């Protein structure tokens, strides 16, 4: 283990690099959101929790809480790469219930730095999920149009 002075020096260096890296990530996300301007207005959410905390509720069940990453309409009315606070409960057998939203979607750019940093490796997954969901919806609409049109 290093001395406290060494640790503080290392912390300062890492802090500067983390700040620069998340600033660059913010610019990357802003550029991606510009490219998504013509994307279908369809919400998608990944089944990944960022800044996750695991606890037990009053009945002794395991609970996971954190931020889910996705693409959605945020309170300003804009469609953005977003996060929302969510929780997931597990029954006594360890089976997971669906996620429960505990807050409204917020732009990723407004999320705490730790959440933005944890989101970075999953941003491509959001775009892929959006593409797949749009294709699913298109297929269903086209199928309905064929049935109704005949």
Largest sheet: 5 strands, antiparallel
Count of individual beta strands: 5
Give helix % range: 40-55%
Strand content range: 25-35%
The assigned structural class equals alpha+beta
The separation of the N and C termini measures 75 Å
Count of separate structural domains: 1
**How big is the Rg?**
20 Å
What is the quaternary state of this protein? single chain
Estimate the global geometry from the Cα principal axes: flat
User: What's the number of helices?
Assistant: 3
What is the succession of H and E elements? HEEEEEHH
Low-confidence stretches: none
Mean pLDDT: 92
Characterization of the model:
Helix content is 44%, strand content 27%. By secondary structure, the protein is of the alpha+beta class. It has one domain (4-149). It has helices at residues 4-35, 113-119, 123-149; strands at 44-56, 62-73, 79-89, 100-101, 106-107. Strands 1, 2, 3, 4 and 5 form a five-stranded antiparallel beta sheet that branches. It has three helices and five strands.
